[in-house]
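Sequence in, structure out.
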Amino acid sequence: MSITIRNTNTRIKDIAAKAGVSTGTVDRVIHQRGHVAPDVQKRVLKILKEMNYEPNLIARALGSNKTYRIASLIPDPAYDPYWNGQKEGIEKAAAASKQYGINIQEFAFNPYDAESYVEQAARVSASKPDGILISPVFFRETHPFFLEWQAQNIPFVQLHTQIPESGALSYVGQDSYQSGLLAGKIVHFGQPGACSILIVHIDEEIDNAAHLINKEQGFRDYFEQNGFNNQYKLTSAEIKKSDLTAFADKLGKIIKDTPNLQSMFITSSKVHEIANYLERKNINHIKLVGYDLLPQNIKCLNKGYISFLINQNPKGQGYLGIQQLVNHLVFKKDVPDLSYLPLDVVTKENAGYYTGSSTASDGHQLYV
């Protein structure tokens, strides 16, 4: 039953007096702790509704000496600067929730090394936290930990990568499949006619990365659902950039061997790697669509070598992920299973509103 806040001056003893029961009974009804006769519960709930009562959860949290330990497990930004945003959001949420007894311990792993991920996830388990914020970028390695945390009744929130039926308290991030559909529409818009379109994954183990599989599927489905398969040839490629010379050689060969290549969809924030190559080779006819507002991407966007960026709002992800756990642990609130963030399409004309170079850059509440 939902009870809205309208009269914060009403006290539990006022409710108890009107219902003819003890304050303990009212407290058990409010917190659904059972051991209340059905007719008494019904009477108390009716009076709670009539008096528009809701407990002052903030005051209760501030007055409590209880502490809550939250572990965050995300990729180390030293390996991929995209994760600086999540880290900043987590740390901002930590500062905002410290007054409620929240203590956040950060764990970081190498996003290109599954063993590093397993090692850090094991450290998270060993720390015995009250809640966990995790980016489960390695699908196979994550499953045993999800089972372990469920068995221990430790709530966990998934960040950036959604693994359905994981038992997570919530998922915070974009709808990866829907973002792929959007990317398909952006790439298709303005195409002069039949051509080749390339889907590029950089430095990823695709069969172990659920969010990238969903992005590619959404992208392909856009063309399938709209009957464009005969007009556009879609192919995909995986490229490693550990060796820059090998990266450039493979990319150059792919471009050379793909007839009438007009567009590329890069499924991560590494779109600037492709843009820099095109600039060095003075290739201007290929439209690039990728993700995220990294400084390197914005630079290429302003130069015209990237046409569109889909902003995943990493800072908002980190902040909201911690907020979900705080609401669950401290305020005992129901948390939505899914918290999808907007699919923002960014061009060089509106990039300043997102990066802070425009006076209107603080207009969206999730950009924290």
